[in-house]
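Our preliminary data section would be incomplete without showing what the modeling component actually yields. Below, a chain of 181 amino acids is followed by its predicted structure, encoded as C-alpha coordinates that our downstream tools consume directly.
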Amino acid sequence: MTASAASARDRKRAAIGTAAFAVEPATVAGAVPWLLTRWEVQVPVPGGVPAQIAGVLLIGAGAAVIANSFVHFAVEGLGTPAPFAPPKHLVVGGLYRYVRNPMYVAIAAAVAGQGLLLGQPKLVVAMAVGAVPVVAFVRLYEEPALLRKFGAEYEEYRRNVPRWLPRLTPWRPQDSGTSGS
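Predicted structure:
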Protein backbone atom coordinates (compact mmCIF):
# COMPACT_ATOMS: atom_id res chain seq x y z
CA MET A 1 0.00 0.00 0.00
CA THR A 2 1.35 3.42 -0.91
CA ALA A 3 1.86 6.15 1.66
CA SER A 4 -0.87 8.27 0.04
CA ALA A 5 -3.34 5.36 0.16
CA ALA A 6 -2.50 4.77 3.83
CA SER A 7 -2.90 8.48 4.53
CA ALA A 8 -6.29 8.53 2.76
CA ARG A 9 -7.37 5.47 4.77
CA ASP A 10 -6.21 7.15 8.00
CA ARG A 11 -8.12 10.34 7.14
CA LYS A 12 -11.28 8.37 6.32
CA ARG A 13 -11.01 6.40 9.56
CA ALA A 14 -10.39 9.63 11.51
CA ALA A 15 -13.38 11.34 9.88
CA ILE A 16 -15.70 8.45 10.73
CA GLY A 17 -14.43 8.25 14.32
CA THR A 18 -14.70 11.99 14.79
CA ALA A 19 -18.26 12.03 13.43
CA ALA A 20 -19.19 9.20 15.81
CA PHE A 21 -17.66 11.13 18.72
CA ALA A 22 -19.93 14.11 17.91
CA VAL A 23 -22.50 12.44 20.17
CA GLU A 24 -20.54 13.60 23.25
CA PRO A 25 -20.66 17.39 22.68
CA ALA A 26 -24.22 17.08 21.33
CA THR A 27 -25.20 15.42 24.60
CA VAL A 28 -23.47 18.01 26.78
CA ALA A 29 -24.51 21.05 24.75
CA GLY A 30 -27.94 19.82 23.68
CA ALA A 31 -29.48 16.97 25.66
CA VAL A 32 -28.40 18.17 29.12
CA PRO A 33 -29.82 21.69 28.62
CA TRP A 34 -33.01 20.15 27.27
CA LEU A 35 -33.32 17.85 30.29
CA LEU A 36 -32.84 20.83 32.63
CA THR A 37 -35.21 23.23 30.84
CA ARG A 38 -37.24 21.32 28.23
CA TRP A 39 -36.12 24.37 26.23
CA GLU A 40 -38.91 26.43 27.73
CA VAL A 41 -38.50 30.18 27.48
CA GLN A 42 -38.92 32.04 30.75
CA VAL A 43 -41.20 34.99 30.19
CA PRO A 44 -40.11 37.68 30.48
CA VAL A 45 -36.55 36.74 29.51
CA PRO A 46 -34.06 38.44 31.87
CA GLY A 47 -32.17 40.88 29.65
CA GLY A 48 -34.88 40.74 26.99
CA VAL A 49 -34.21 40.54 23.28
CA PRO A 50 -30.55 41.68 23.52
CA ALA A 51 -29.83 38.72 25.85
CA GLN A 52 -31.60 36.37 23.45
CA ILE A 53 -29.61 37.70 20.48
CA ALA A 54 -26.39 37.21 22.46
CA GLY A 55 -27.57 33.69 23.26
CA VAL A 56 -28.18 32.85 19.61
CA LEU A 57 -24.73 34.20 18.71
CA LEU A 58 -23.08 32.10 21.44
CA ILE A 59 -24.92 28.95 20.34
CA GLY A 60 -23.97 29.53 16.69
CA ALA A 61 -20.36 30.33 17.51
CA GLY A 62 -20.13 27.28 19.78
CA ALA A 63 -21.48 24.98 17.06
CA ALA A 64 -19.11 26.44 14.45
CA VAL A 65 -16.08 26.07 16.73
CA ILE A 66 -16.95 22.46 17.55
CA ALA A 67 -17.35 21.61 13.84
CA ASN A 68 -14.07 23.34 12.99
CA SER A 69 -12.27 21.50 15.79
CA PHE A 70 -13.60 18.14 14.64
CA VAL A 71 -12.34 18.80 11.11
CA HIS A 72 -8.87 19.63 12.45
CA PHE A 73 -8.75 16.45 14.53
CA ALA A 74 -9.63 14.33 11.50
CA VAL A 75 -7.56 16.10 8.85
CA GLU A 76 -4.60 17.50 10.77
CA GLY A 77 -4.40 15.06 13.67
CA LEU A 78 -5.52 11.92 11.81
CA GLY A 79 -7.55 10.93 14.86
CA THR A 80 -10.49 11.93 16.99
CA PRO A 81 -11.05 14.03 20.11
CA ALA A 82 -11.96 10.80 21.95
CA PRO A 83 -9.33 9.47 24.37
CA PHE A 84 -9.84 5.94 22.98
CA ALA A 85 -8.91 7.05 19.42
CA PRO A 86 -6.51 9.99 19.88
CA PRO A 87 -4.85 11.90 17.05
CA LYS A 88 -1.56 10.71 15.61
CA HIS A 89 -0.32 14.29 15.26
CA LEU A 90 -0.62 17.21 17.67
CA VAL A 91 -3.47 19.45 16.52
CA VAL A 92 -2.23 23.06 16.51
CA GLY A 93 -3.95 24.53 13.44
CA GLY A 94 -7.16 26.46 13.01
CA LEU A 95 -8.66 27.68 16.25
CA TYR A 96 -6.07 25.67 18.19
CA ARG A 97 -3.63 28.47 17.29
CA TYR A 98 -5.62 30.72 19.65
CA VAL A 99 -6.67 28.47 22.54
CA ARG A 100 -5.70 24.92 23.56
CA ASN A 101 -9.24 23.79 24.35
CA PRO A 102 -11.60 25.36 21.82
CA MET A 103 -14.12 22.52 22.04
CA TYR A 104 -14.60 22.82 25.79
CA VAL A 105 -14.87 26.61 25.48
CA ALA A 106 -17.38 26.20 22.63
CA ILE A 107 -19.54 23.76 24.58
CA ALA A 108 -19.60 26.18 27.53
CA ALA A 109 -20.54 29.02 25.16
CA ALA A 110 -23.37 26.98 23.64
CA VAL A 111 -24.80 26.08 27.05
CA ALA A 112 -24.50 29.68 28.31
CA GLY A 113 -26.07 30.84 25.05
CA GLN A 114 -29.06 28.59 25.64
CA GLY A 115 -29.34 30.05 29.14
CA LEU A 116 -29.51 33.55 27.66
CA LEU A 117 -31.83 32.61 24.81
CA LEU A 118 -34.27 30.82 27.09
CA GLY A 119 -33.90 33.12 30.06
CA GLN A 120 -32.83 30.10 32.12
CA PRO A 121 -30.04 31.07 34.57
CA LYS A 122 -29.86 27.45 35.75
CA LEU A 123 -28.02 26.64 32.51
CA VAL A 124 -25.28 29.13 33.36
CA VAL A 125 -25.03 27.50 36.80
CA ALA A 126 -24.94 24.04 35.18
CA MET A 127 -22.16 25.23 32.86
CA ALA A 128 -20.13 26.50 35.81
CA VAL A 129 -20.65 23.29 37.79
CA GLY A 130 -19.80 21.21 34.70
CA ALA A 131 -16.58 23.16 34.24
CA VAL A 132 -15.12 21.70 37.45
CA PRO A 133 -14.70 18.11 36.19
CA VAL A 134 -13.66 19.37 32.75
CA VAL A 135 -10.84 21.47 34.22
CA ALA A 136 -9.76 18.53 36.39
CA PHE A 137 -9.81 16.18 33.37
CA VAL A 138 -7.74 18.58 31.27
CA ARG A 139 -5.17 19.24 34.01
CA LEU A 140 -4.90 15.71 35.40
CA TYR A 141 -5.33 13.55 32.28
CA GLU A 142 -5.25 15.35 28.94
CA GLU A 143 -2.24 17.59 29.46
CA PRO A 144 0.01 14.88 30.98
CA ALA A 145 -1.06 12.45 28.23
CA LEU A 146 -0.28 14.99 25.50
CA LEU A 147 3.08 15.76 27.09
CA ARG A 148 3.97 12.05 27.17
CA LYS A 149 2.86 11.49 23.58
CA PHE A 150 4.15 14.66 21.89
CA GLY A 151 6.94 15.79 24.26
CA ALA A 152 8.74 19.00 23.36
CA GLU A 153 6.28 19.78 20.57
CA TYR A 154 3.42 19.92 23.08
CA GLU A 155 5.53 21.75 25.65
CA GLU A 156 6.26 24.52 23.13
CA TYR A 157 2.59 24.69 22.20
CA ARG A 158 1.54 24.79 25.86
CA ARG A 159 3.98 27.66 26.57
CA ASN A 160 2.54 29.73 23.73
CA VAL A 161 -1.19 29.03 23.62
CA PRO A 162 -3.46 29.60 26.65
CA ARG A 163 -5.67 26.85 28.01
CA TRP A 164 -9.05 28.67 28.21
CA LEU A 165 -8.91 32.34 27.18
CA PRO A 166 -7.93 32.78 23.52
CA ARG A 167 -4.92 34.74 22.33
CA LEU A 168 -5.68 37.80 20.23
CA THR A 169 -3.29 36.69 17.48
CA PRO A 170 -2.70 33.18 16.14
CA TRP A 171 0.33 31.29 17.41
CA ARG A 172 2.74 30.08 14.77
CA PRO A 173 5.77 27.98 15.65
CA GLN A 174 9.02 29.70 14.65
CA ASP A 175 9.79 26.87 12.24
CA SER A 176 6.98 24.34 11.89
CA GLY A 177 9.44 21.77 10.55
CA THR A 178 11.44 21.78 13.78
CA SER A 179 8.87 22.86 16.37
CA GLY A 180 9.29 19.56 18.22
CA SER A 181 13.08 19.88 18.65
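The chain is about 65% helix and 0% strand. The chain has one domain: 3-160. Preliminary results of this kind motivate Aim 1 of the renewal.
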